[in-house]
Amino acid sequence: MYNLAVFGNPIEHSLSPAIHAQFAQQLAIQASYIKILAPINNFAQAAQQFIDSGGDGFNITVPFKIDAYKLATELTLNAKMAGAVNTIKVTDSQLIGENTDGLGLVNDLTQNLGLSLKDKKILILGAGGATQGIILPLLQQQPSRLMIANRTASKAEKLANDFSKYGPAYGFGLDKIKSDPVDIIINATSASLDKKMPNIAPGCAEHAICYDLMYGEQTPFMNWARDNHALMIADGLGMLVEQAAHSFEFWTEKRPDTQAVIKNLRG
Ligand code: NAP
Fold first, then answer.
1. Greatest CA span in the chain, whole angstroms?
2. What is the pLDDT of residues 168-180, one digit of tens each?
3. Is the C-beta atom of 213 inside 6 A of ligand 1?
4. Quick check: CB of 129 below 6 Å from ligand 1?
5. What is the DSSP string of 3-57?
6. Minimal CA–CA distance to 240: which of 221, 216, 210?
7. Minimal CA–CA distance to 260: which of 18, 2, 6?
8. Residue 212: in which H helix or E strand, if any?
9. pTM over 0.85
10. Residue 111 in contact with residue 122, Cβ under 8 Å?
């Protein structure tokens, strides 16, 4: 029996328990996966209580991914470079921290949407926590350029610099985006949460694949992509399920089938 959980605040609307219940059922694995609302200023104590009660592993969502990074006693390269942890595996001697967000995005793009990222020009909008988690797995797919554009240009420049040893990463302000088409645009800003679309040159969307990390509704970015002749438009639900699958595999060493779960969630 695996004792699993997800920590967040808020946590009520998390889809993770439903996703992990489907994975466990598919693979005939006995698992309990609960939601835990941790106090904003006391994630570490809540996590320790769960570990002491026999917890085998847990996910961490907003706003505790950096606290989880600090709590982990060992980090994967993904987690180290992301500066954040969304998955912890409890072993006898260690709390192993992993970040599965970027792996989830890459799997959704390559396996569910059937895209190759090799030699592609990729533009990421935003330079927050989500962007930091997806850069390394994207660079590992060998794009020709990975451009990071952010409202606060200095944050994008810093990220590009931090990751430059892993591949061709470039950082600049949103206002420097050219009107030239790119192959893939990933919206990793939180503007969609405020029902806003960053004001950027529309020409970059022409025949591009436009992917919003947000899921659950048609976002202003998705509307913008449609109005500017994008080739394909996707939301982040596939990424959510894929990152969960990586977490599940990290804990159990068994790989669930994600397609059926994505289909179920889309209803
Ligand atoms: P974050 O760390 O708070 O970063 C927010 C980013 O958005 C910053 O780069 C910020 O720019 C930019 N931004 C916010 N409002 C903007 C606006 N009106 N115009 C232009 N830029 C704006 O957030 P995060 O954790 O990276 O999350 C970003 C998004 O990814 C959220 O929608 C989240 O739900 C989604 N997400 C989805 C998944 C999934 O599994 N599908 C996983 C993780 C995250 P400044 O730096 O200039 O403030």
1. 55
2. 999 999 999 999 9
3. yes
4. yes
5. EEEEEESS-TT--HHHHHHHHHHHTT--EEEEEEE--TT-HHHHHHHHHHTT--E
6. 216
7. 18
8. strand 209-212
9. yes
10. no
